[in-house]
Amino acid sequence: RFDAKELTDEFLRTAPENDVRDALIQVKGLGPWSCDMFLLFHLERQDVMPVGDLGVRKGIARHFGLRGNGKQGSLCPKKDLDLILRTVKPFEPYRSLLAVYMWRAADTVDFYNDDSKKDKTKKKVTPPAKKPKTESSKN
């Protein structure tokens, strides 16, 4: 599409977000998540909310105390889209910055509910058994 001049640097820089998104979606291999990341990090658009990103949804759920309709109460990008968009509405036109903070919130260990204590993958280390004292070791 770039070689055929259907997409140009000028278009990507100046077109409204929805037009850029519609044009990028037409490129084979690019989906909504890729478009959001392109808008956020390459074009540096200030009001992009990547609801398809798991880290952003986890951060929103944790920071705003939300439970969604996904597995184990997680926010689902389809079923909970309206809830997510209502929640982040007050942050327009700076939702890109909010997304960055939500990624950080998702990676932050809760001080009061330390998630590391709940990690069941950690193996308990048992100390080696003490050797019984023999006659020769008593002296």
**Total of DSSP H or I helical runs spanning 4+ residues:** 7
Radius of gyration: 24 Å
Which structural class is indicated by helix and strand composition?
A: mainly alpha
Cα distance, first to last residue? 86 Å
Strand content: under 5%
Number of strand segments: 0
Note the run of SSEs as H and E: HHHHHHH
Average pLDDT works out at 84
- Helical content stands at 40-55%
The geometry reads as elongated
Stretches with pLDDT under 50, minimum 5 residues: none
Largest sheet: none
Describe what is shown at a glance.
This protein is mainly α and 139 residues long. It has seven helices and no strands.
What can you tell me about this protein's structure?
- The protein is mostly helical.
- The protein has seven helices and no strands.
- Helix 2 (17-25) packs across helix 3 and helix 4 crosses helix 6.
- The longest helix has 13 residues, at 95-107.
